């Protein structure tokens, strides 16, 4: 609820995730600025010999420790793919932890403003300036986390300066209010600009790494994923690469038009994706060409079983714009059981097995082996079903 007051409007979840990560990204600056604020208040407490200020210094240290703890907790506990509700909870934690420390600073400033000690007032002003700089420079991607701490730190002493009702303190209050006003405008402007820039960056990254029609990973993402998968390959496990080619797609595309053809590709991708395990990848690498990377296999038959399952899924006709269209799928499979395997060689083997399948028949699969027509028997497939 707190954050919504200064919310700059709807932000895509992927951009929101990047913004929350940036809030928690710089532990060093949080520590340095927090310690500077505590030291400034401690100097003022020493000059004024004020017991309440000493207590506020200790509260400031506790608030700083809590803020550091929240940052460390985020780094260890935040999931890798958080939903919007989770991100909002982490943003609220950040706001509460930051506002708590700022409120202690504001209480100290109110106490110092009543002391009539210019040096102590200057020390507090420097501490507040660090909050302002942090709000503008580091957390201005989100309006709430930037402005709530600033308001908590500045509002109490600003009130005291105004009620002092002398020229010096009114001038001080005017300078403070002017700087806060400028900071608010900068924060709001930065939030809008940063939201747009981060959204554009996400969009460009998606275009560079994903197929625009199916939103599947493209060849670039496939190569990167396959390299990483092979590098992490565990002993007694293997990786299977499936090259898929839609049978009779060209005929359907020519007969019904490109719009129906695009619908077929999207529907095919959806069906195949449903048959994969978490951690496997489906990529589109050409017009009607797809590649699956199947990870963590214990035996070759698991790859054959997946191929057979996909063939079964595709036998059911597709309903695209009122047209019932039947397709098939030819599959070539290559396996690797060592991290030394070369990704492009593995893809070439799977592609070769695919074309062997298409020469022999359609709506079938082959596994790359020394034998020209190597594929498991139906009995062997049933044994792993």
From TrEMBL:
Pfam family, any one: GGDEF
Keywords assigned: Membrane, Transmembrane, Transmembrane helix
SUPFAM superfamilies: Nucleotide cyclase
Record domain GGDEF: where: 237-370
Alphabetized InterPro entries for the sequence: DGC-Regulatory_Protein (IPR052163), GGDEF_dom (IPR000160), Nucleotide_cyclase (IPR029787), Rev_trsase/Diguanyl_cyclase (IPR043128)
Chain intervals for the UniProt region annotation (Disordered): 365-385
Keyword Transmembrane helix: yes
UniProt xrefs under CDD domains: GGDEF (cd01949)
UniProt keyword annotation of Transmembrane helix present: yes
Transmembrane feature ranges: 20-45, 52-74, 94-110, 122-140, 146-163, 170-188
Protein name from the UniProt record: GGDEF domain-containing protein
Natural source organism: Lichenifustis flavocetrariae
């Amino acid at each position: 609820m707190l954050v919504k007051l200064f919310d700059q409007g709807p932000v895509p979840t992927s951009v929101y995730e990047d913004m929350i990560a940036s809030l928690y990204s710089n532990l060093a600056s949080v520590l340095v600025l927090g310690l500077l604020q505590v030291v400034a208040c401690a100097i003022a407490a020493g000059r004024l010999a004020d017991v309440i200020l000493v207590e506020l210094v200790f509260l400031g240290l506790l608030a700083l420790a809590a803020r550091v703890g929240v940052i460390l907790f985020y780094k260890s506990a935040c999931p890798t793919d958080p939903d919007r509700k989770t991100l909002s909870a982490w943003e609220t934690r950040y706001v509460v932890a930051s506002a708590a420390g700022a409120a202690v600073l504001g209480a100290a400033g109110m106490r110092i403003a009543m002391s009539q000690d210019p040096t102590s007032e200057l020390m507090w002003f420097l501490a507040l300036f660090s909050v302002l700089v942090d709000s503008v420079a580091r957390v201005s991607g989100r309006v709430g986390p930037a402005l709530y701490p600033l308001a908590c730190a500045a509002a109490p002493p600003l009130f005291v300066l105004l009620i002092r009702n002398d020229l010096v303190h009114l001038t001080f209050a005017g300078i403070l209010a002017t700087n806060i006003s400028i900071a608010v405008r900068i924060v709001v402007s930065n939030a809008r600009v940063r939201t747009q820039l981060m959204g554009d960056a996400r969009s460009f990254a998606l275009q560079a790494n994903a197929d625009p029609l199916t939103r599947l990973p493209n060849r670039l993402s496939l190569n990167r994923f396959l390299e990483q998968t092979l590098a992490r390959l565990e002993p007694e496990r293997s990786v299977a690469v499936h090259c898929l080619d839609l049978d009779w797609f060209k005929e359907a595309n020519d007969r019904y038009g490109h719009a129906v053809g695009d619908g077929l590709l999207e529907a095919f991708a959806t069906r195949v994706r449903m048959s994969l395990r978490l951690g496997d990848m489906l990529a589109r690498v050409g017009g009607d060409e797809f590649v699956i990377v199947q990870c963590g296999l214990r035996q070759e038959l698991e790859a054959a079983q997946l191929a057979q399952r996909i063939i079964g899924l595709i036998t059911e006709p597709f309903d695209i714009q009122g047209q019932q269209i039947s397709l098939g799928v030819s599959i070539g499979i290559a396996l690797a059981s060592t991290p030394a395997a070369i990704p492009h060689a593995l893809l070439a083997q799977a592609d070769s097995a695919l074309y062997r399948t298409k020469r022999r028949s359609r709506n079938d699969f082959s596994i790359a082996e020394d034998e020209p027509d190597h594929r498991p028997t139906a009995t062997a497939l049933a044994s792993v079903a």
